[in-house]
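Notes continue from the previous slide.

Worked example: a multi-chain complex. Inputs as given:
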Amino acid sequence: MTKRIDFQPDPSAYKHWKLSYEGPVAYLTMDVDEDGGLFDGYKLKLNSYDLGVDIELADIVQRMRFEHPEVKVVVMQSGKDRVFCAGANIRMLGGAAHSHKVNFCKFTNETRNTFEAAMADSGQQYIAAVKGSCAGGGYELALACNHIMLTDDSSSSVALPEVPLLAVLPGTGGLTRVTDKRKVRRDRADVFCAMEEGIRGKRAKEWRLVDEVIPNSKFDDTVKERAAEFAANSPKPDVAQGIALTPLNRTFGEDGSVTYSTVEVAIDRDARKVTLTLKGPEEDAPTDMDAFTAQGDQAYMLRLAREFDDAILHLRLNEMEAGLWEIQTQGDPEKFAQHEALLFANKDHWLAKEVLQYWKRVLKRVDVTSRSLVALVEHGSCYTGILAELLFAVDRSYMMEDEFEGDNRPIATVTLTEANFGPFPMANDLTRLETRFLGEPETVDKARESIGEALEAEEADELGLVTMILDDIDWEDEIRIFEEERASFSPDAMTGMEANLRFAGPETMETRIFGRLTAWQNWIFNRPNAVGAEGALQRYGTGIRGDYNMERV
Amino acid sequence: MTKRIDFQPDPSAYKHWKLSYEGPVAYLTMDVDEDGGLFDGYKLKLNSYDLGVDIELADIVQRMRFEHPEVKVVVMQSGKDRVFCAGANIRMLGGAAHSHKVNFCKFTNETRNTFEAAMADSGQQYIAAVKGSCAGGGYELALACNHIMLTDDSSSSVALPEVPLLAVLPGTGGLTRVTDKRKVRRDRADVFCAMEEGIRGKRAKEWRLVDEVIPNSKFDDTVKERAAEFAANSPKPDVAQGIALTPLNRTFGEDGSVTYSTVEVAIDRDARKVTLTLKGPEEDAPTDMDAFTAQGDQAYMLRLAREFDDAILHLRLNEMEAGLWEIQTQGDPEKFAQHEALLFANKDHWLAKEVLQYWKRVLKRVDVTSRSLVALVEHGSCYTGILAELLFAVDRSYMMEDEFEGDNRPIATVTLTEANFGPFPMANDLTRLETRFLGEPETVDKARESIGEALEAEEADELGLVTMILDDIDWEDEIRIFEEERASFSPDAMTGMEANLRFAGPETMETRIFGRLTAWQNWIFNRPNAVGAEGALQRYGTGIRGDYNMERV
């Protein structure tokens, strides 16, 4: 699996999904092309999915918000007879490297979360209209919707058969959503998750596994009714027209570099290091949201978010050995502040809101990226507002202090804006500054008083906004030592450490999925009982059960 | 490592700890016997520890509460020069089976939690008086104390060097306590955890890693002063005399059975099944707490807790293949209620309080036990109050409905008491019933209305207190099918599933340690970068660094 995985599918050539629109209701039909797998060696039977299917889905959910703001309800349904979705493709999982399995699960988890974010942030609600068998990752797709309708016939059921069938966990938030979102009683959850055949009809509703069970003959009509009803009661304001998300402007170099219009990716494969440079805006901010809307997806704040998001996904899946990401910014801090300010001044404007909420998702993507993240605040940088938020998302940061010989760029500064005090909560529902200063909450207030000031190194250090400030004499050596040290550590230990240090404070369904569920799944994905030659994943479909070491650990 | 591990050390023959008492202050000195390891093949140098050292420590913390209620402050210190504690013994870890490593970490975690519980529940406070190097598990011991004092000399420092040195995580809550208890800024935590040498002096205080840094010349005096001061301000009431915890009455059978005075353990190794029967009291409840105190550790409620606790620990470590535990009770429900009621009626009496709080810890031990747990509510059982709580701790429960042919025992009932509505919170800080009914909180109120009623099967089912009720016709088959099914599943998948289903709702430091940190550590404990022939644990001490696969997953 070494070909480059591309996260920018062409919407006119989706292989696995069909869309139709009826006013405020969109119908999203899963109709997976058996022969359209991302890799060779498996067929995507029974609406099972691989990463390619999910990349299209993520693209659809994203476009629904920008291109179809008129849509208030999205109905997910199946284009196959007697099966809603069979979940992740088992042969694909059986053949995939450990790292691919883990990254696949992370991306699908992020995509499921965008269903819930669409409702929470923009009032765009997902309904799962389940006909046929809905198992494993298929039920997890339904669980990510906010309303599950199940038809009452002999073949339609919901199930999480991973444990009995495959000796792994439901990997896309299934266990967590069953207990925490749907609040299924835990002993019933235990029974449900130990069943291959799943649960259908009335009992599925009684156990809180679905919201409605509807006689088959009335199912299609009831789904339409429910969609119309939800659309009528939707909190989402009417928006007549969206903007188009056109293909990204990007060039891949042979050396692994990627050049976007606002993002530059450089890779030093020997040093296992990526440098990700985000460029400040060259042009002035649009004067108002009409001007911004006219620019559409070329508006700087949206373009930067899309390009940065794509760069993150590309690096995660295609450059797995590059364990250290150095984030830099270069540009005019004040100009960046103007672009950002337009959005905050118009945060009730649908497009301003969508762009800000997209940034929320991009910043969360940074938080759960399993790489050592460091931000370098060099002279000439523009760590302002949203970009300053990166300083609090990374594992540590270094800032240049005073002038550096031969460096004529403007002196390094950090500027806080309202972006740093509320609109971009982490998965733990706190801001990154609140999380950072859990031990000294008064520091958050002190930081707030500095909003709008271009803080030089000593001030930023005083406020605890950066990890370390270094002058011309120490900078190069210190950074080099850090880079070498980090590159020499065991990547597994770094992954575990970062996952534990990044999310202090309260936990939420989201932190449980990425912190707890993921970790247990990773463990199981390494155990012979699942992935060994006689493990359940390898034996799936052979009719022979996995041969297990029965020791409980 | 197949010899039986015993969790009942003889206090007169502790190998690794020394105790002295000065009124309300106890001095607990760690002075590990190099040659006193639980297994062969390693020396416990530099105050490093293995499970045996921790078994003694757990025993001391427990006895401090029952035998020394006059103690208000416990000062932990080292009996060695220049080292406080070097943490878990690396050669032991390198040579141990995966399952032993995981169980070792779980037990040490539970023991660290008892430090904090001693303060929270009984006002018995632990101070770490750190002289010399305090690294890894050594610093985690200090982190479990509520006050850390560090001497300021050239050799004294605190450190979590696991990641750089061993390619594993600090496994005893270190990362979680650094971010969540001590609220260290996460970028500083990142720097701290990537350092082999640790941090000393003023910076350790500034970074919130310790509470006080004291010049070496004044250290011993200041520790004494601080202990006296804490003792004087302690919320703990004065108690002149404790009770003795005498050796447990138990017999081990050749077939794996264990017989205690109130607990019976039977093992069917072929079926990988344990039956744990808790017996109700034969004698009447003591008339008052004087009578209870006179009975001392022979009082039924304390005896049962101690025996059950020991049985859990014994089975966890010594019977790892027995993946299914069936819990039963047999006895007179009303008589049990009387014994329990005496404690609740006197919950301000020091000993009643300690016994109830001990039950809290025992029930939590059940919650985090990595076995499939099922409760059988048979005729003649006494699931009342604390014992009914077991029904909500297990993964599922089955209850006999109506009379069974040839079974003359009193009909099966469940009786709720105040025990089920507050005094025994889970690690998530909710009661087990609140957690069970997250989706329908009104059911908790309905259940409360039934306090004191002996609920037969149909009523218990109606209230959602049991998973399934079965009559004479179905009972045997259903239980057999369940047992066979459960015994056939992959134990790893069961462990992961149970860890995710058991703790719905809010998370706390404790759930993070057992849920998140443990899972990541387990994962890393399976990865070649840590445990492979060229991994860091194997290579430790050879002077050659681990050879890592650098892929980030």
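Summary box: The two ends of chain B are 32 Å apart (CA to CA). Chain B touches chain A through 95 residues (CB under 8 Å).
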